[in-house]
Design goal:
Largest sheet: 8 strands, mixed
Number of strands: 8
Distance between the termini: 44 Å
Structural class: alpha/beta
Number of helices: 14
Radius of gyration: 21 Å
Shape: globular
Helix content: 40-55%
Order of helices and strands: EHEHEHEHEHEHEHHEHHHHHH
Length: 303
């Protein structure tokens, strides 16, 4: 299939590459032209304005947006609405809040432009492993774009979740669970660090051991093994842990739905607390975010 990709950050660039590997045709646009030129050298067709991107697509056009959630997405959709035609399709693949998807789908319906929300997980490893993809919107439009989802995802790695907002809602809960899992690993290794056996333990070896058939094995633990391999006591980073918004939204949803979610809530609050201290458990969280998502960490040296 032929589609436009707007946003060539950590996720968007590698998603464009994976689509090219799958023999799709990609027209790419990024606010800064260097990345557009880079992916153009790898087989994509470069566009340096939204007008140029739309002009290089054939009706019904498919435009995939990979931008930070919020106003920047709304601004791009507003510009696209004036350029696209009835029957064209916008896919919002970033980390938008699901209520924004519901609003956007309704607004675009007035212009007969289709809208899908795609929650995407896979981080910087998605190019090789694939992107777990959760999709909301019109089922017929999902079916039409299924070859794209199939290429981006690993085997059995994409799902139609329901009407507008469903994809990002499921991704939001996914990220809330991720917060809790990471917090548990952080606290566990902090207990090891505070134990009388600390000097006997190699944390890379412990992480590797726990991935050999134990009930707490996971890809996150594999990434933690890699992190300890490069920095055995995580001395090179601080325990400052940021949050991307979805953890907050998950806790807000728990309150609205009157569903108890104490683990996720506490994991979120611990991230807030991390900005005032440098505990070992928080250094584990920071290291995990760096390993799976390429998120920046703060060096212990202040650099």
């Amino acid at each position: 299939m032929r589609l436009g990709m707007i946003g060539l950050g950590r996720m968007g660039m590698n998603m464009a590459r994976r689509l090219l590997r799958g023999n799709h045709e990609v027209v790419a646009f990024n606010r800064t032209p260097d990345k557009t030129k880079q992916i153009g050298s790898e087989g994509a067709e470069s566009a340096f304005t939204l007008e140029e991107l739309v002009g290089k697509l054939e009706a019904p056009r498919i435009v995939w947006i990979m931008l930070p959630a919020g106003k920047i997405v709304d601004d791009h959709i507003a510009q696209l609405t004036g350029l696209l035609e009835p029957g064209d399709i916008i896919v919002e693949g970033g980390n938008s809040r699901y209520t924004d998807d519901i609003r956007r789908e309704k607004e675009l319906r007035n212009s007969n432009i289709h809208y899908l929300d795609a929650g995407v997980s896979g981080g910087i490893w998605g190019l090789e492993i694939g992107y777990c993809t959760m999709v909301g919107g019109d089922k017929d439009i999902f079916n039409r774009l299924e070859p794209v989802f199939r290429t981006l995802a690993p085997a059995n790695g994409y799902l139609y979740c329901g009407p507008a907002g469903a994809g990002h809602f499921v991704k939001m809960i996914h990220n809330g669970i991720e917060y809790g899992m990471m917090q548990a690993y952080g606290e566990g290794f902090a207990l090891l660090e505070a134990s009388p056996y600390r000097d006997n333990l190699n944390y890379q070896e412990v992480a590797h051991l726990w991935n050999q058939g134990s009930v707490i094995r996971s890809w996150l633990l594999e990434l933690l093994e890699d992190a300890f391999g490069g920095d055995p006591r995580l001395d090179e980073i601080t325990g400052y842990v940021d949050d991307s918004g979805e953890g907050r939204w998950t806790v807000e949803q728990a309150i609205e739905s009157r569903v108890a979610a104490p683990v996720i809530a506490q994991a979120l609050f611990t991230r807030f607390q991390s900005r005032d201290e440098n505990s070992f458990s928080n250094r584990v969280l920071a290291a995990l975010r760096r390993e799976f998502g390429g998120h920046a960490v703060k060096s212990s040296s202040g650099k």
